[in-house]
Design goal:
Blueprint: H1 15-20, H2 25-36, H3 42-51, H4 58-65
Helix pairs in contact: 3-4
Bound molecules: zinc ion.
């Protein structure tokens, strides 16, 4: 049924999504929740993710959350 879904490489995702693709399903769920949680500011969340081993820039994070990144379009 999903044989034509393709691979993530078929399109250009920004670093925020590419980072997410390296995570385990459990971590990915937490990651998605944090990205969608407006209580997390971009600067603090980027710093925290980077400290936890997921190198994240606050500007990349902001662009992704504002849908101004390469994921869109
Ligand atoms: Zn993005």
């Amino acid at each position: 049924m999903l044989e034509n879904l393709g691979t993530p490489e078929d399109r250009t995702y920004c670093i925020i999504v590419r980072n997410g693709l390296t995570l385990s399903p459990e971590d990915f769920a937490i990651y998605q929740e944090a990205l969608n949680d407006p209580r997390w500011g971009n600067v603090v969340l980027a710093e925290k993710l980077t400290k936890l081993g997921l190198k994240t820039g606050k500007d990349s994070l902001r662009r992704h959350r504002e849908k101004m990144c390469s994921c869109v379009g």
